Structure formats: C-alpha cells, structure tokens
Amino acid sequence: MSITPVRSISTNVETSTSSSALLDLINKTKKVTVKQPLVWIDCEMTGLEVFQDDHIIEICCIITDGDLNIIEENGYESTVYYDKQVLDNMNEWCVTQHTKSGLVAKILSHPEQTLEKVNQEIIEYVKKYIPQERVGILAGNSIHMDKFFLMKEFKPLIDHLHYRLVDVSSIMEMGNRHNPRLMRCYPKKKGNHTAKSDILESLEQLKWYRDHYLKSENEVKSFIEDYESKQVDIEGDDSDKVIKKRKV
C-alpha cells in the first residue's frame, strides 16, 4: 500500500500559494504606461474670486490616454474641508447648488480631508500613472479657471503637469462660430455640478467633437500625402546645407 507523505502535499500547496501571492504582487506593482496622458480635473469652489477669499471645496481627477480611454474608472475624488461659517458665506448660487447636490453636507462630514491631505493624495494618484514631470496635460471645460485655483492651492500638482492645456470649451466656441448647425446637435448636458460628473460630461463632449467635428486622419489622407510629397529635404553638414526639392 502506497502512502503519499503529508509533508510533500503541504509543500506543494505552499509553493502554489506562494506563486499566486508573488504574481499578485507583480501585477500590483507593474507600472502602467499611459500614452499621451490627459489629466482631467474639475473643481467645485466657494466662488470664482480666485484672488480673494474663494477656495476649492471639491476636486476630482480622471486620467485618460491620448485616445480618451479612461485609465482607472474610479479616479481620485475628494472634498476639501472648510467649516460651516466659510460655507455659509458662499454666494447665493453656490449655497443653493452645493446644498442641493449634497456637497455641503459631505464637506462637513469629512473634516479629516484638509487641504494639505488632499494635496498629498492627488499628487500621489497622478504620479502613480504619470511619474514623469511635464508629461500629463491638464484637460477640462474652461480649465483655465480651475488652473488659477490649482496654482493657488495645489501648486505641487501644477508643477508636476505640463504647462499646456486641453480646453474643451475652446473647441465648442470655435464650433459655434464655424459650424453652428452641427454644434446644435450636441446632446444637452445634465449640469449636475459635481466634480466627477462634470469631468465625465467634458470627456464625452470631447469624444463627440472628435467624432463629429474634428476631421479624422482618413478624411484628410489625400491632403497629408500631397503635403508630404512637396516637402523638401535638407542635406549637408553644419557648414554647407543644400536644399533640394523632392521629385514628385
């Protein structure tokens, strides 16, 4: 009668468990390479007086690649704590809207989310997917206004990002002047005015413009080929450059 040693079975189980744990660790620590990253950010503020006493009270960040694919669905989202007195002193629109959306209650129920803590959390989130400086480009609707507040209250984040912006509202304004009939076809926004919902709407808006307003590579293929065929080659060394037209 043959008996399988218990020690051998135990060793096999331990080896299998160890391999599985190692694989999980590798997957968790594997770096995600985001091609042409866009850092979508939206902020809710106590008002729009950036050079006075208004502050960011909610911030959300979602990262996409250059094809507008979301890299991580949850993104980063947090309130920034201010006491009731500050929130009561917001302008009438902000008091009404942020109370209706539940943002005021959310802020007051999370006093641990200080400006310093949120700064640390959001920069860690961005660096997890975009570790290199001056690579991620800030994106959103009227994103210049968010950037003004970010420069004042989230400077480490701004310092990490590229100075360029992708402003969806610029495309909208150009479209309203260039092709207003098409722009009127765009689906009406819900306008919930929460940071995350605003980002997702801006992202869908840019996708719509890409698909319906901006021309694709195939649509301009003949123009590109014609342009490239007429380019000139620059040959020679530093002391003697000769410009020669390419034969068509």
Structure description:
The protein is an alpha/beta fold. It has one domain: Nucleotidyltransferase, domain 5 (2-Layer Sandwich), CATH 3.30.420.10. Helices cover 48% and strands 15% of the residues. The chain has a five-stranded mixed beta sheet, with helices on both faces. A two-stranded antiparallel ribbon has the order 6-7. A hairpin with a 4-residue loop joins strand 6 and strand 7. The chain starts with 5 loop residues before the first helix and ends with a strand. The N terminus and C terminus are likely disordered.
Essential attributes:
single chain; 248 residues; alpha/beta; Nucleotidyltransferase, domain 5; five-stranded mixed sheet; two-stranded antiparallel sheet; 11 helices; 7 strands; 48% helix; 15% strand; globular
SSE layout and pairing:
Layout: H1 6-29, E1 38-45, E2 56-64, E3 76-79, H2 84-88, H3 92-100, H4 103-108, H5 115-129, E4 137-140, H6 143-153, H7 155-160, E5 165-167, H8 168-178, H9 180-183, H10 195-212, H11 221-229, E6 232-236, E7 241-245
